[in-house]
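Retry 2 of 3 after timeout on previous attempt. Resubmitting structure tokens to design endpoint.
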């Protein structure tokens, strides 16, 4: 709601600056503000919908709609960049000159600082609530601040040199910058929809695995993740002592899962495929008084991204540690 209200106010301010100056670079900044307003409204609806709990039709929740929001915003930005470049070229062709630059500069500078504050606020809230839509909106709004900075620099050069073409050139540069950002947002969103691996989430998960490791959870590998907004469904293989009965295995895995999810940066659930140790992991298994132990315990396996992606043999792990 804050983002939507602020974006509407800044839209009015920037178009007022354009009407004063008839500057193409300010026009480019104002057009991006239209995108900000539409994106803020879209994000508001998306966040409300993604917060709905999972149901029979959506067993993994509704969080993936946030990726649609980010893709939609990226597409709007890309379209705005084409419009900006087109208008700048036409203004250059007709020799249009900006006017009343002092007043326009003050308005754009104020709007730019407001965008920076809003963008930092949205990114911080997005990180706190693990919201893809909020982080995408915040990143876009911060890029709008850099757009305003570029516009201001261009207009200062116009005022100092009297070269009106700098205004149109600045607008083209701003349009190209926005197009690149829009493409990046769309690419990131498609990756999320296609469940592309998230290295940051994997690193966070590996760290929590190591922090919450307990006796009997010998090794975790073949980790896969479905991200549905802030909610993650995690599949993995876990190596357990082969002499444990079903009840003990269930209790150990259940306790481990609860400890991990409580500490994990995201909400979620875990589904483990159990592998027996086959007496091959004795040197990295710290279960005390194990009746089937073949070798003395040396050191627990440290879970990192490489380890949880694919299994590492105990001998190889210990050899790496010695090196």
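Retry 2 succeeded. Sequence:
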């Amino acid at each position: 709601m804050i983002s939507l209200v602020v974006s509407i106010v800044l839209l009015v301010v920037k178009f007022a600056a354009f009407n004063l100056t008839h500057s193409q670079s300010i026009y480019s900044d104002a057009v991006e503000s239209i995108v900000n307003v539409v994106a803020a409204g879209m994000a508001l609806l998306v966040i409300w919908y993604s917060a709905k709990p999972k149901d029979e039709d959506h067993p993994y929740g509704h969080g993936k709609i946030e990726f649609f929001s980010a893709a939609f915003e990226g597409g709007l930005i890309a379209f705005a960049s084409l419009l900006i470049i087109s208008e700048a070229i036409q203004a250059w062709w007709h020799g249009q000159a900006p006017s009343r630059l002092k007043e326009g500069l003050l308005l754009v500078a104020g709007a730019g600082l407001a965008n920076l504050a809003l963008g930092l606020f949205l990114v911080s809230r997005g990180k706190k609530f693990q919201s893809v839509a909020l982080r995408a909106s915040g990143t876009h709004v911060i890029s709008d601040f850099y757009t305003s900075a570029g516009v201001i620099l261009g207009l200062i050069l116009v005022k100092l040199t009297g070269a009106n073409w700098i205004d149109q050139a600045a607008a083209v540069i701003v349009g190209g910058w926005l197009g690149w950002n829009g493409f990046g947002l769309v690419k990131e969103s498609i990756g999320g929809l296609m469940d592309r691996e998230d290295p940051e989430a994997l690193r966070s998960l590996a760290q929590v695995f190591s922090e919450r490791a307990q006796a009997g959870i010998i090794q975790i590998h073949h980790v896969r993740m479905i991200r549905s907004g802030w909610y993650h469904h995690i599949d993995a293989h876990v190596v357990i002592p082969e002499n444990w009965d079903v009840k003990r295995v269930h209790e150990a895995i259940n306790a481990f899962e609860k400890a991990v999810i409580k500490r994990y940066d995201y909400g979620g659930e875990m589904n483990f495929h159990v592998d027996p140790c086959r007496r091959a992991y004795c040197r990295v298994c710290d279960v005390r008084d194990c009746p089937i132990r073949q070798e003395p315990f040396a050191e627990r396996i440290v879970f990192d991204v490489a380890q949880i992606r694919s299994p590492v043999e105990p001998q190889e792990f210990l050899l790496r540690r010695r090196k």
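Attempt log closed. The longest strand covers residues 219-228.
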